[in-house]
Design a protein that fits this description.
By secondary structure, this protein is α/β, with parallel strands linked by helices. It is built from 11 helices and 9 strands. The chain has a 5-stranded antiparallel β-sheet with strand order 1-2-7-8-9, covered by helices on one side. Helix 3 crosses helix 4 and helix 7 crosses helix 8.
Amino acid sequence: MNAVADSKQKGVALVVVLLIVALISILATQMISRLQLNVVRAQNIKDNNQAYWYALGAEEFARKSLSALVSLSPDNINLSQPWAQTFEYPVEGGGIKAELVDMQSCFNLNAINSQANSSNQNPDETDSEDESENEEEQSNTELKPSNPNGQTQNGRLPSQQAFHNLMDIIVDDSFVVDTVTDSLIDWIDEDDKSSDFGAEDVDYESLAIPYLAANNTMSSTSELRLINGVQNGSSGQWLNDLLPLVCVLPETSLRLNVNTITNEQAAVLAALLGDTLDNAQSIISNRPEEGFSKIEDFRTLPAVTALNLPANNIEWFAIDTKYFKLTTTTQYNDAQFRLTTLFYVGGGSVTVVRREFGGF
């Protein structure tokens, strides 16, 4: 009997030992897996942080480059200058790619309700800039007296008509053009009165997922997707064609640099001129390689003088720039990072207006 009992006890002990060994093995496996996960996580964080700092380094390099550009050529910004070239720089374990874009070679959506002779300028601008603009305004008034009520024949402000022209170039449906134009006007203006084809709070509140009109300036072009005529899902391809032509700046003045606009953006020039797309492309194609040396060279072009534009419309065109957008993409090991920076150039300095972080 004792031998049988001892045998049973040894069997139980063996089972207990095996259970303990199995439990220890499971715990060790889990610990190793978590350790490996933490090591990979720490490496990913390290790589992402390095890519982030590379992007900030590129931003600082671009800021200094713009400072040098402003000091050397403050009154003439054109595509033949070094800033317009894409910057690519290899680094250990990855690379940096940076591209500067003139943000005054597109249509500023926040300027759609801008009044004649009005511009919300950055407070950092100097008195000398104000004096030069006053001289330009004085010379512009000699071209043609502006409309006394500041409106076009259809009751829209010139800036509103310019956006309507842009939409008309891109979209074939006149109802969509009128709807989106008037709805954008209502989205930005401060009142709650709907335009003829526009929409206000009462219209947006009746949607399945209700919201209110901003009644303020836009902070991103992505807000376009919320506007009546766009949010109904029928925008399709034309919205993709429109987005590269528009931008959002922290001011409500309309200003286009005729030295930096490209053939791909010719629709913006055509819209502001109230001319055909072919004529706008012809102006851009025949532009001097280093751009117009002074704005009068553009204003006195036969294709421009033939339009007999009002003085207020002529003021939209310039050869200098106050806003640049830097798009930086960096890679370090397996990490990729994207940074978009909006610069303001004025008062002898270059400042960061906003940053947008995003991946690929």
